[in-house]
Amino acid sequence: MNQLYEVKVAQRYSAGPDISIIELESSSNENLPPFEAGAHIELHLPNDMIRQYSLCQDPTQQHCYRLAILRDQHSRGGSQYIYDHLHQGSQLKISAPKNLFPLVNSTEHHILIGGGIGITPLISMAYQLKQKNQSFELHYCAQSSEQAAFIEELRNGPFAQHVTFHFKNQGADHRSYLQRLFPNLAKSSHIYTCGPNPFMDWVFDLAQTHQFPNEQMHREIFQNVVDLHGSCFEVVAQQSQKTIAVAADESILDALAKHGIYVEKSCEQGVCGTCMCDVIEGSPDHRDVYLTDEEKQSNEQILVCCSRSHSDRLILDI
């Protein structure tokens, strides 16, 4: 079990319609664990939900963590719970920072492209790149400034000269702008994007059209639409000495839990990697976005919250 930290909501304030900024401090008034730009934390909410949110601040700040929470009408309930129940003084537990979206250690140019609330991890990246005096630019794409967070900080902060705003209600067209920009970028540049999945897909497609290497394209994914349906199969939990049938519309995670085998979980969408198990035998049907293509081809591990099996039987080291 990963170590958890007791924190309290030190501040909560609005940053526009349906966006709340929440600042967390240690309940024992200690510094929180350090982190690198691109990191996120898991909120262990009092209703037993676990949700991931990017840290959006100068990474040198250790006395608090800052989060931007979008109340998503299509969410699974986490953001709504936060809106209704987390206020100044509220107590909760969090994980140490985890980073699935780090800055590459490179002296080359960095292009940061955020769509809507996806600006959050890119803010930390901009602070870190500025402090290291590295070449970068930050593009903030949104419907309007009224529906965007951190506008004043980005306009007047230490890296303001690196920021370009693309607000549709002000006539901006980020697609046309980036289509003109990409042919002029050095192919050694690194591209980072965060936002809705279609937005990130479009940025990646544009980069691939202009022959940017895959290893120089980076994105943050917190939502993965998973289809659990497939053929029935068996999972052998070798350590537990149990053979378990997994139904056609059931996750391995849920099937294991029915038989008293509880695997640690978090996102349940194949994003965070918390539920990863070692594969001893069999051919997983990988449906996650956590493992790399090379890791999926090796078939050595599986995320049991969303993946299934191509073979009739999977033997797992659990």
From TrEMBL:
In this protein, which residues make up the domain named FAD-binding FR-type? 1-104
Superkingdom as given in the UniProt entry? Bacteria
Q: Which InterPro entries does the protein's record reference?
A: 2Fe-2S_ferredoxin-like_sf (IPR036010), 2Fe-2S_ferredoxin-type (IPR001041), 2Fe2S_fd_BS (IPR006058), Beta-grasp_dom_sf (IPR012675), FAD-bd_FR_type (IPR017927), FNR_nucleotide-bd (IPR039261), MRET (IPR050415), OxRdtase_FAD/NAD-bd (IPR001433)
Keywords of this protein's UniProt record, alphabetized?
Answer: 2Fe-2S, Flavoprotein, Iron, Iron-sulfur, Metal-binding, Oxidoreductase
Q: Which GO terms describe its molecular function?
A: 2 iron, 2 sulfur cluster binding; metal ion binding; oxidoreductase activity
> Which positions fall inside the 2Fe-2S ferredoxin-type domain?
233-318
Q: What is this protein called?
A: PDR/VanB family oxidoreductase
Organism of provenance: Acinetobacter rudis
